[in-house]
Amino acid sequence: MTLPTIFVGIMVASVMTLCQGQGQDATLQEGARGSVVVDAVLDKIRSSCVFSEDRQYLRRLAHVMSRDGVDSATYRSNFHGGIWQVTESMFTATKACSNVYITEVCGNITASFGITWTSVTWQDLRKPLYSGLAAALSTFLTLTSDLMPGNVTDQATLWAQMYGGNSATFSNQPDLSTQFDCSDKMDLVFILDSSGSISIADFRLMLTFAADVIDAMDVSRDAVAVADVVYSSFVNLHFDFNDYTTKDQARTLLLNTTKLGGGTSTYFGLDLAASTLYNSINGARPDAKKVAILITDGKSKNFTKTSDSAQALRDLGATVFVVGVGGYRLNELHAVASDPICSHVLTLNSFSDIQSILTEIQRSVCDASKTFDNSTTSAAHTQTLVTEVPDKNDVIEANVSCGAMDIYVSMTDHKPGPAVYDYKYQVEPGTPTVLIFKKKLTAGTKLYITVVGKPLTGFAATNCTYRWNLRVTRRKAVKVICKENGVKRKCKKSDIVKAGLCKKNKMPFKNPCTRKNLKKRLLRHPHPFDSTKFLLCDFAGKVYVVSCPGEDIFNPETRECGFTSVCTCGGGNDDDPAPSTGNPCTPEAIANGQFYFTYSPDDTKFIQCDEWGQSWVMPCAPGTVWSQDAYTCIHKGADSGSSSTSASTPASTSAPAPPPASPSPHSLSTTASLPGSYGTNPCTPQALDNEQFYFPYNSDETKFIQCDEWGNAWVMPCEPGTFWSQDHYDCIKKGDPAPSPGPTITCSSTDISVPDPCDQHAYYNCVNGEAMRKECFPSDLFYNTVTKLCSYDDVNATPIDASCDR
């Protein structure tokens, strides 16, 4: 039978969107970890009103207890506390839900998540959401009737009560709650209650708080713009977006706001805020997200008018936060705030406590969503948009240039992302994508869309400006005609696929899985514009895009995940600054096969180029330095010239050679002869697997053989006056005593980790009974023999074994 011929009248991008990713919720997946998972859990807990005012305590707690679950001991066997490391006794205390302080919270958990807490087991806490809920309940039990403290010092005391240990362990940890992105263009208006019930002193505290809020922001015409509305029985626009040019000027204007006195006509303040945020005469920008912060101490004069004015402000697209102090009316605060309400309302007993919510309001405001407006943006950072499902004749279309973008969509979670989403789309350059939803949605239903920008980097970004665009556009007509043997018939899905109209794996780059690369077993390649991914080849020549786990990036040198970029072209790690001469990985150098260069700030490192012009700072092996003449790392003091037999030259060749493009030690020959009487190359795959990199050089005891990771053997000189000792595994002086055997490291079948008896800042992970040494990070942390985690205090730290070499 002849295959059907397909004639396509019009081909549009919407055909390509039949293949969007299915939804996921990592907060309910056992063993899930990472900052995006923690943030998703906390967003659920706060927006559901289970623990909406934790003052960022649970965020800090996740990092202190398990580094957001990234610590290797987080999900150890026989311990089920999860990311928040809730002990079995802590969990048991919450399980009955009979305590007066958590009975209502347990009810909220059931109503919000369908979880009956009395039926939950400790093992369930291996799911991040359950671990976070258990930590919240345990916090309520510890606090009893006390208010949640807002500062880190008091929260450290609370942590010590809950988990034991020194409070300094908590307070000395990096405060991740203060790490947030506030680079979105935003028009921010403060709506300040200036009624007679607020004292002069409290009004000053309010103004200081408002001024401190903008300290975390880039106040400028290109970023955050600020305005100030004050109200009582009447209203006044104290200053608008045009009245200053610097952050200091905006702070001064806020601090000099005049108190009015009188009644509490909150609706006047909301109405003036609306006209300020959306009036270009006042300096409002049409492409900026709109945010309002209302601070009030009491009940408004007219609840209905206040509620209506707030609704009108929100309908315009503004996000409204409310801070209620003292004699507030909670249902009125809820009527004013944006959804989800509990994420947009903060309450205090008095103005003296207002600084305790500073970080929380800063983070929340900076993370606020923007109303979708069809605008083009060049932002490379993450941005969350709010829109509505278009009518049946319209679609949402995404385009990107000079990079890529990931789009996460949800109908329920107001901040979808890699951890939680209903739909995921990956948009590549030159491939417009239409957002199509398998569920039948009613026009007008709210959609929450998070865009993660991924611009090109390095040489690939030269003369290329990153831009992405989302827009609502008319649904285009598509006419597809299928004919079989000249007879028109109904098209099947297989017809569309075979015709190539649904290109599930269309790549905007050249397939690296060439026959030449496959013969060399080069199966992994860097992704051209996303360092968190790599390209994987199969032996049929097909290419797959693979994501690195967690927050790792792909190392083009080792062709493995788990490397930190220090690219001189931006987007890297500041630990190793770029050389002052700039990026040596020019197109000319790469075309000439020059991939390795001197790293001038530190001779124990060198620069390696990848084929896209990115430069990477790479470390030499311990005890070696980079030599541009030898084109490799050599032992300190060695002659880098290729003519000397004492130089660091490959023992099997007469001249230095650069590292191969594919680090694959098992495919290299191990039979190359060595000079002198040594015989064959000792750098066998078995030796490398056992981490044996050094051997005696039998012809001369003042030298030794060093293996590199690709199986090359190098003859290296000892320092003058020393000779090689295989027992010491080092060059030593004549007469040095024999090395101590040191303590024995033993991993039992039940051990997750054991201390390093010779180093308080290290430990051994036990994997199938084998010990694998790990160092605490940061390096000044101590391994705690009780918690099996690294912490800042030396309580329960490892005692140094007497047999260790000092």
TrEMBL record:
<dbReference type="GO" id="GO:0005576">
    <property type="term" value="C:extracellular region"/>
</dbReference>
<dbReference type="Pfam" id="PF00092">
    <property type="entry name" value="VWA"/>
</dbReference>
<feature type="domain" description="VWFA">
    <location>
        <begin position="187"/>
        <end position="361"/>
    </location>
</feature>
<dbReference type="InterPro" id="IPR002035">
    <property type="entry name" value="VWF_A"/>
</dbReference>
<dbReference type="InterPro" id="IPR036508">
    <property type="entry name" value="Chitin-bd_dom_sf"/>
</dbReference>
<feature type="domain" description="Chitin-binding type-2">
    <location>
        <begin position="744"/>
        <end position="806"/>
    </location>
</feature>
<feature type="compositionally biased region" description="Low complexity">
    <location>
        <begin position="644"/>
        <end position="655"/>
    </location>
</feature>
<dbReference type="InterPro" id="IPR050525">
    <property type="entry name" value="ECM_Assembly_Org"/>
</dbReference>
<dbReference type="GO" id="GO:0008061">
    <property type="term" value="F:chitin binding"/>
</dbReference>
<keyword id="KW-0732">Signal</keyword>
<dbReference type="InterPro" id="IPR002557">
    <property type="entry name" value="Chitin-bd_dom"/>
</dbReference>
<dbReference type="InterPro" id="IPR036465">
    <property type="entry name" value="vWFA_dom_sf"/>
</dbReference>
<feature type="domain" description="Chitin-binding type-2">
    <location>
        <begin position="510"/>
        <end position="571"/>
    </location>
</feature>
<feature type="signal peptide">
    <location>
        <begin position="1"/>
        <end position="21"/>
    </location>
</feature>
<feature type="region of interest" description="Disordered">
    <location>
        <begin position="644"/>
        <end position="672"/>
    </location>
</feature>
<protein>
    <submittedName>
        <fullName>Uncharacterized protein</fullName>
    </submittedName>
</protein>
